Amino acid sequence: MEKIKAVFKHDRFAERAGIELVSMAEGRAVVQMRVTPEHWNGLGSAHGGAIFTLADFAFAVASNSYGTVAVAVNVSITYQKAVAAGVLRAEAREISKNHKLGTYTVAITDEQGEIVALFQGLAYRKNEKLPV
To answer: Would the pTM count as exceeding 0.70?
Structure first.
């Protein structure tokens, strides 16, 4: 797991967004991000793209957690409520996996544990190992 975590420490976009990897296990990941004014949209709440990035990073960690490359082939997100401050947490969970595909859900919650958004992703699982 430590080698896999090292791969994701090099994700410059996630780093720039302030996303932190909290925990991971096979098929699972928890990440978080403190919402700051840099994440705001024109209305003063977290930009949908910032929330999507948080969810997508959790999805990437969970789907690559077996040490082989997995890439997104389809994703969707549904936003439930706006948030302007605080820490958002994204928890990715594997729903199903076979030798070629993996399905994951990601729940994005605020500090009160309320759902901010729900994300679903389908990953294509390659045979190549992660570059560790």
So the answer is: yes
Handedness of CA 26, 71, 32, 93 (dihedral sign): negative
Give, in degrees to the nearest 5, the angle at Cα 43 between 41 and 49: 25
Cα gap 95→118, rounded to integer Å: 14
Helix H or strand E segment including 109? strand 101-109
- Asked if 99 contacts 87 with a C-beta cutoff of 8 angstroms, the reply is no
CATH of the domain at 90: 3.10.129.10
pLDDT in tens, the chain (132 residues): 777 788 888 899 999 999 999 999 999 999 999 999 999 999 999 999 999 999 999 999 999 999 999 999 999 999 999 999 999 999 999 999 999 999 999 999 999 999 999 999 999 999 999 987
User: Residue 61: left (phi > 0), alpha (psi -120 to 50), or beta?
Assistant: alpha
Domain interval for residue 11? 2-129
